Amino acid sequence: LFHQNTYLVNGELKAWEGDTAEVYSTISSTPEYKPTLLGTIPQLGEKEALEVLDSATAAYDNGKGLWPTMKVADRIACMEAFVEQMKLKREEVVKLLMWEIGKNLPDSEKEFDRTVEYIYDTIEAYKQIDRSSAKFEKSAGVYAHIRRGPLGVVLCLGPYNYPLNETFALLIPALIMGNPVIFKPAKHGVLLISPLLEAFQSSFPEGVVNIVYGRGRVLAAPIMKSGAIDVLALIGNSKSANILQAQHPKGNRLRMVLGLEAKNPAIVLPDADLDLAVDECIAGTLSFNGQRCTALKVLYVHESVVEEFNRRFAYKVDQLKFGNPWEEGVKLTPLPEVDKPAYIQELIDNALEKGATVLNKKGGETCKNYIFPAVLYPVSKDMRVYEEEQFGPVIPVIPFSDIEEPLDDMAESDYGQQVSLFGKNIHTLSPLIDTLVNLVCRVNLNSSCQRGPDVYPFTGRKDSASGTLSVHDALRSFSIRTFVASKDN
Ligand code: G3H
Question: How far is the centre of ligand 1, averaged over its atoms, from the C-alpha of 447 (Å)?
Answer without folding.
Answer: 15
